[in-house]
Queue: 2 jobs
Job 1
Amino acid sequence: MTEAKICGLSTPQTVDAAVEAGADYVGFVAYPPSPRHIPTETLRALGKRVPGLVVRVGLFVDPDDALLDERVGTGALDMLQLHGSETPQRVADIKKRTGKLVMKAIKVGKASDVDQGIKLYGRLVDLLMFDTEGGELPGGNAKPFDWTVLSGRAVPVPWMLAGGLTPDNVAQAVRLTDAPIVDVSSGVEATRGVKSVDKIRAFLKRVHEID
């Protein structure tokens, strides 16, 4: 069964909607330039609303140790999503320092980006994410990449497909890629950075209908 992550949540209402509609992962952004960034105390409060079977993911972009310690110290994160230009050594150091599950986002513009990402990070992390290269922000830019570059790929760890997914195209994306997990942020927003409860429910409904 295809799993789903709703990223960039910032309010109790949208967290509850994601959980109630069957999200497997919920994401919280710790990157001030993003309109989805939330303060540490908001993360602490929202994390408490999430039941144990749902994985709470913190999105970071080239974080320093102080930010990691602050966010992990809330007890509100189960997994760290590294969405910047973190080197393999930095990824390994973060995993060791925090003791948390770690996901690395791979920016995809061409097929070789997938190969390179798997080569560099596939044996280091608990999960890989394939997202669209470029855009104003490291993620959440509402732009898909050529999904066919993932068709038939052997990936050594669980992985997520991200980038431009919506309730209308997620089924097609999974059919083309066989993605075991899909990630959405801008595709379930009413306005930039503001999630829509109805769109969250619609996206998760479509995902659950795929299988």
Job 2
Amino acid sequence: MTASPLAWTDPARASAFSQWLAAVAPQHALQPASVRLASADASFRRYFRVDTSTGQSCIIMDAPPALEDCAPFVKIAALMQDAGLKAPQVLAWDAPLGFMLLSDLGAQTMLDVIAPPAAIANLFEPTPAQFDLYMDAADLLVRWQLSSKPGVLPPYDDALLSRELALFPDWYVGQHRGFAPDADAITKLAPLFAQIKASNLNSLDGARVFVHRDFMPRNLMVSPSGELGILDFQDAVYGPITYDIASLMRDAFLSWDEEVVLDITVRYWQKARKAGLPVGDDFGEFYHAVEWMGLQRHLKVLGIFARLTLRDGKPKYLADAPRFMKYARATCARYRPLGPLMVLLDEIEGNETRIGYTF
């Protein structure tokens, strides 16, 4: 096919891309005239799709090296393939230029299969096919976690958790909402964050595994055969075993009824426990840890969405901020020690403070 010309803001980079593509095209049977935009994400990366003369297609990653480091992507893709997961294969990579040729996992995400974009909202009862997709995702997650080894990926430690949590007061509360908590509220936010971090780092005896960090339906690809592939894993770390299941079931783009969340989470826990992963013998304790881990993620994501809008000019992400605020408030409402955080969230959002919760 003949595609529309790609848009480039830097003529020099456009020229470098054309030269790179011309050099790699013969070896991989690429058809340069077919290059078209496939997707862009919250980072500075872009993805193109290009056809081959064999009737297949490949993906090209455009990642300016001054803004994006592709080395973790390459390393983690190899880790996933070694674990038997379907991840993109790196076919060619020019590290100094930041261009990479990848195998194509297709254009249909798990999110696309669950609900068309126009229909995404709160969902209640999954169809059998949707439920099976979640079970496949749970199996994929267990295989990824079983391949874990210490010292291979960066640690998800107190320092990283602290940096992530700081995004919420800095970008969402201060920059986006323009809200200035009084000195007393700020003083009491620090021990609340410390409590969240302690729970995430110490629950389940500090169980650690490989963590994708954005394991959700939008990043899981469904092949024509129904096999799940995995994308957007370049930020993977070695951290709490609760993180990825919290991410899967508290999605950025769709929400399930709580009974569904519990059902799928307990089925993942059963699979993980049977496989020998350190999820503990008490599901109640595990679910408590998942919810507190999820809370940290919700606050982080709210900060990231605000930063994407205000710093990076990508306002579409803030449309899903209310979903994450709802997740965060639901967790705070369930656990008494988080009551003071509920008060602050209500104040930030202009909600009436829940009776019984005070600083």
